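For reproducibility, we list the full input for the tryptophan complex.
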Amino acid sequence: MTITDRRIVTLTGIQPTGELHLGNYAGAIRPLARLAADEGREVYVFVADLHALNGHPDPAVLADRTQRIAAALLACGLDRPNVHVYRQSRVPAIARLAALLNPVTSKGLLNRAHAYKAAVAANAEAGRDPDHGINIGLYSYPVLMAADILGLDADEVPVGADQAQHLEIAVDLAQQFARTYRGEVLREPRALIPEAIATLPGLDGRKMSKSYGNTIPLMADPDVIKATIRRIVTDSTPPEHPKAPDTLVALLRAFADASTIRDVETRYREGGIGYGETKALLTAVIEQHVSPLRARYQQLRAEPAALHERLRQGERHAARRADEVLARAMTAMGL
Ligand code: TRP
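The corresponding predicted structure, in tokenized form, follows.
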């Protein structure tokens, strides 16, 4: 195997499917920024715009979301020399590698992929044809994702539980490629489970997720964030009564300093703090954390040409690396 870079290479992608929320930030972006603070790591982070096509987004909406996510990534601590931010579609070797992986991907492997199985199950439930509304992009999602990872010679991929199977498939495909052709051409990645993965609860107490519609936006105006926090569901325990730690406490734990957290936890346990006061405190804590990120984000959004140039840099860098991997794969295959 050609080792082109001795530094640990960490890679992840984010789909441009909606507005970024605090759950994305605490669970994915902030942990990645912390990893990237280590200069001994090289970080590749991309907007998975090709993956988003499976849902047929309106082209203008997709273009706008892609810009927003790229700007948000840069604003959230990833604007560093050892981090390369790029749009997946602008690194052609990735899609070409996906095409080369198709012949070594068994159909049965994709039949077992969770996202496809869930779509088939939903069709069965609704009494529809099993493949109703399922396109080949969705079906082969794990192949493109494997190309994202293997194409950049990634060592480690930070993943939440929902992406673990996709990473296993990427490892499978690297091994299948090695069995089919000579030797180890594609580097096998490993999952990086972020310590104590910060899964934040959303407004209704379930995991914060766009599919539940219970999110708090990351880059919205302060008034919007404040109004959203007010909608967090609480019970009717009066201020003076003891309370069990709830969604508000969980969110504070993710953003407040240690002494604020301790203080609120004590007042919950002993009674003496109401939900209104806790929400106001939480709003202030989040605003303090987010306001410098928002300022940088707005600056990047106001200068699209500069943002574009910054992404072009990341794309040139990623393309150089991916072209090397693609060349290795083509040579191994006799192309
Ligand atoms: N599937 C990931 C998600 O939906 C996004 C993604 C695409 C990704 N390609 C990737 C993540 C490669 C890590 C590595 O969240």
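The first strand starts at residue 8 and ends at 14. The CA atoms of residues 41 and 175 lie 25 Å apart. Both points were considered when choosing residues for closer inspection.
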